[in-house]
Amino acid sequence: xxxISTLLDSFSEQTGKIFSWLxxxxxxxxxxxxxxxxxxxxxxxxxxxxxxxxxxLIFTLGAAYTLKExxxxxxxxxxxxxxxxxxxMVDLLGTLIFLIxxxxxxSWVSWGYVSVSWRIKEGSPESSGLAYVYLLKATIIxxxxxxxxxxxxxxxxxxxxIRQSKA
Length: 167
What we know:
The chain has 167 residues and is mainly alpha-helical. Helix content is 78%, strand content 0%. The radius of gyration is 20 Å and the shape is elongated.
């Protein structure tokens, strides 16, 4: 089981590092928009929409990496005072009761929404906008899958901590 967890962690690590470069791209695109607007008095709806796309990609495709790095918001009133075994139990129960069902629910609820978008090859409502809304919506499913996979890894790590603390 530890090999599976290591493999899933490695996958989240690599995807997180790759998609973290989107933050640099977003800053460059935003700077380009500002220069075009205020220096050359030019506007581009496609460039403005691309900033929204990039921002969405950063969050949807980076969420599993953030989970792996324990970077999600946590109400840590009691957790930090717990023993390692108890923390592992909280992590395991949180993953099994909240994370896994949430990822399944996100996939289930968004499947029709995403599939209709793909079927019609949905594009921007703006005439000069980006024609790839359907690709962006597909990242909702990817978010759920990536979080589910990292959740499996987190559950395995919690089980290992619980087993180790018994010994």
